[in-house]
Amino acid sequence: MSAPISHEKRKQEILENALDVFIEEGYEDTTFQKIAERCGITRTILYLYFNNKKEIFAESLKRFLASVEVRIATVARDGNLSCEEKMVRIGEMVVSACEEESKLLSVVLDYLLRLKAAHGDPDEKVRRRTVRMRHILASIVIDGRNRGEFRSDVSVRGATEMFFALVESAVFRLVVLGRKEATGLEEALRLFARSLRP
């Protein structure tokens, strides 16, 4: 008889297996039954953890973004780094996280394209999921302006949008172009951060 699996460990296993199903089948064709089969459990047991595939997908995305947000916040609080160094480190970290989770991002892209086709608002979904990251970056830009590390005329919104445009470029390269790495973006991030100097 096998040892019982903790609730959290089983939940993580479900999320990992579900991601594989989402990647193989696409968001639309993934079913609760297919996820249960991949996990080697019944749908009834799967219902003990999640109500539907949308909840499974949302939880996978939430966990990914939460781990990235924690790492970003840690860098943002580091008093030994200049604001420019913080922007570069955060950018490199986000690009690396995108490289590591390119499978999840391919499912996200599939979901967003289907949402758009159904006349939904994918931009609003992405902005809502990244609002905390945007606030952290905005606070770094404001701090950089206040310390004189960045030009006083640097637009907080413009700098934040440029940063996210580079991240979106990483996602495009990894998911749409199928590259293994988002090469070249680290230098673009450094150039962008340097452009904020007085």
In short:
This protein has 2 domains: 1-51, Orthogonal Bundle (Arc Repressor Mutant, subunit A); 59-194, Tetracycline Repressor, domain 2 (Orthogonal Bundle). The protein is elongated, with a radius of gyration of 19 Å.
Distance between the termini: 67 Å
Query: Could you tell me the mean pLDDT?
Result: 90
Return the CATH class of the largest domain: Mainly Alpha
User: Which fold does the CATH topology of the largest domain refer to?
Assistant: Tetracycline Repressor, domain 2
Helix content: over 70%
Please indicate the percent range of residues in DSSP E strands (runs of 2 or more): under 5%
CATH superfamily membership of the largest domain: Tetracycline Repressor, domain 2
- What order do the helices and strands follow? HHHHHHHHH
For this entry, what is the oligomeric state of its chains? single chain
CATH architectural group of the largest domain? Orthogonal Bundle
Number of strands: 0
